[in-house]
Amino acid sequence: MLNIKTLEVNQLQENCYIVSDETGDAVIIDCGAYYDTERSAVVRFVRDHGLRLCHLLCTHGHFDHVFGADTILEEFGVGPEVHFEDKEFVADMDRQYRDMLGVPYPRASVPPSHLLADGDNVSFGTHELKVIHTPGHSRGSVVFYCASEHVAFTGDTLFHMGYGRTDLTGGSWQQMQESLKMLFETLPPETKIYPGHGPATVMSNEQQWYIHPI
Questions:
Q1: What percentage of the chain has pLDDT greater than the value 90?
Q2: Where are the domains positioned within the chain?
Q3: CATH top-level class of 3-209
Q4: pLDDT of 213 over the 70 cut
Q5: What is d(CA 173, CA 41) in angstroms, rounded to the nearest whole number?
Q6: Measured in whole angstroms, how far is the alpha carbon of residue 116 from the centre of its chain?
């Protein structure tokens, strides 16, 4: 059984997930912890629960999902893993930050420790997360899906009653529509959805509002 801790972090209220199972192995998904108090909360949770951190996973490379990567590397020796199409975002956070906000990135960039691709399986404990490539919000956006638990971490591809922006660098409205269509057609209705922002939901709720453009 998966234990999922959600921490809402940074100025954009991003969801950072600490996911573990009965073995004590754990992964962090989208560590966007920006403030020192948020970073400390992530580290403290891992240590207080005696977890062995195996992976730091990124649903995509935007800064609000990667802010805390330097702390995780320093504290646990685990670097970020991202789809290869978003590797440049993560490797050079300063450029991304300047392009979007016009100011220098306030932390050090942490190059990806591993590049992911569609169909990869990320293992920890007795569980696996399948990497599903879902371009649209960015070229390298992915969903992490645990079939045995019917759980999906959807980043900024799918929210409760909505989906992520497609007007940023690497975004595509057409690709977003195709990614959503694929998710709605392939993930079971009972799949619990943990998005990058906002509340958790269930796939059956989201399938009701989505109409794929003709």
A1: 86
A2: 3-209
A3: alpha beta
A4: no
A5: 36
A6: 12
